[in-house]
Amino acid sequence: MQFKLIKLLRTRRKNLIRSQTPIILTCVILEILNYAFIKDLSFFDYVVFITVILAVIYTSVAYGLKRGLLSAVIGILYGDYVGSKGTFIQFNVTNERGMLLFSVLLLLMATVIGWLRNLIDNAIAREIAAKELAEEENRQLASILNQLPIGVLVADKNARNIKANRMMETIIGRKLKNSMELEDFRIPPQYSNLKVTIRRGKAVKNFEMEFVRPDKKIAFVRIDAAPIKDKKNKVIAWVSAVMDITERKQLENRKDEFINLASHELKTPITSLKLYMDVLEKQIRNTNEKKSVKIVSELQEQIDRLGTLVIDLLDVSRIQTGKLAINTTDFRLDSMIEDALEVLKRTTAKHKLILKKTPATVTADRYRTYQVMTNLVTNAIKYSPAGGDIIISVKKEKNYALVSVQDFGIGIEKDQQDKIFDRLYQVEGKSSTYPGLGLGLYISKQIVKRNKGKMWVESETGKGSTFYFTLPLANN
Ligand code: ADP
Q1: pTM score, two decimals?
Q2: Do residues 240 and 297 both lie within one domain?
């Protein structure tokens, strides 16, 4: 510490002496000139006056206020010395006045010029410090971004100025240029809706995309992107987070393949089992053994449940792989629903199924629409355990038919209403009371979607739910 202080003082002193070299050198040279050449004292006065002023100006400009003032003092002392030899600065005034004028002039000049120099110095120093701080912050931000396990991309509106972290380039498998077009991101044509969302300046949430890397490997990413807007609400830039979900997708695919295989393998033995059970049931009924008849019909019920489950699993894997076949025909939706309700009525004694119908012919897959109806009404029965009315209505709207299934059961909480249409989703806390796999609504919604319709729910907890779906009306 002490050592450091001494070193600092030394360097300061060195600098102080160096800063006074111009004025000292000026005085020494002037003295030599005076001795060797300039004998005319009044001419020498002028030379001293001008050169000392120049030396003080130089020191003030080069070293600032304090050192400029020190030079001015040295200059004044030298002027005084020259004056003591003769009559320094006569300028038609007395020697003292001349000396005073000279001193004030030197001090004033040193103050003004030195102060200006200090001011400029400070401004420059501040600017440099701010720049260094910004650079440091940028460096830190870049290093944080580079450590992130997700890809981050910041681009201005026209993708002309692009900043991406290391992970982003790893995910897409190539270097990003500083300036690109939206097309350069090579968004595959099947994801044109992503481009539309971006062009409209809307946030992209949870968007999953498949693409081929330059090394020909298939990759999956999840994209979340948000626009940055100016005061006038105009998009000026985009910030995107991109996650590599290839591994997860591959795992999901393998799981789907397994479900597909398992459900296919299960289907055949269950069908045979059902046939054998039917034969067995007939035989046992003939024996009139009530206990055995009851056991067999319970067994049949369980086999039916197993069969439905396997069919649901098969449908899910068909949907997942895009292999769900849709055979559209024109049929009377109201009549089909009537048929379905005839069968469903037999499954409950506690509920009253009420149909309000208008004749409506739709273009859709009849078998799959029957499946949707069965699922919605079964759910309405299942989730209104106290019994009561279930109102089914068929209406014609503009160019579509609107079907609704209303129950007065347990209802669904607001925050769950979107999720119930997801695969394998069951409302939290309800799965133990109401067994199921959470596949029915997912399948139903996908079927309706494939038939160019929509499905949604309106519900209030404790009051009941109404499920709606639409199907396109037949042209004539
Ligand atoms: P599952 O009934 O086999 O669990 P679904 O896909 O048919 O699967 O339904 C998903 C979830 O939605 C159910 O677990 C249930 O919590 C909720 N749900 C469906 N229909 C109704 C309804 N009518 N009333 C209340 N909740 C319902």
Answers
A1: 0.60
A2: no
